Structure formats: structure tokens, C-alpha cells
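Q: Give me a backbone?
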Amino acid sequence: MGDAADPSESIDLAARRRSYEMVRAVLAEEDLSRERRTAVPMELVAAVLAESGVDGLAEVTVQLSLRLAAAFERIAADQGIAAVDFAEVWLLD
């Protein structure tokens, strides 16, 4: 029974893949209008919702949040400031 994949791992990997696809889609669309840059990830969100339901969409959101927080921590450390302060400037200002 050790050969069976852990369902939570496959959900996590799928969520990580989808979160990567969303970020990559936005980065790849940098020359397009704001409306199109918004539409691309919305299409991916709709696909996740259709394929995996609310739980899958929640998992993608969690993955994006964790990855963004890790990136903020690295950048803030390089700048010698607290990650929460860096996040506040980037997300609330």
C-alpha cells in the first residue's frame, strides 16, 4: 500500500502547478492591456473551479499566498526590513 499516492499530495501538486500557471500567464502578458492581464488569470481560476471545485480553488489560493509570503520574506531580508512591513507597502499602498 506504500505505492498509493497520498491524495493530499496530488492536490498540493496540482495547486502548485495551477498557481505557477496563473503567475506565468500574468508575467507573459506584460505588454497587453490591464483588462487582458486580468482576464488571463480569471480564465485559469474558472478552469480550476470547474475542475476541482471550491476546495481546489482554495488550495490554489493558499499556495499563492504561501509562495508570495516566501518571496516577500526573501526580498525584505535583502532590504533589511520586516516582511510584514514590506507586504504592507506592496499590498496596501
The chain has one domain: 7-92. The CA atoms of residues 1 and 7 lie 13 Å apart.
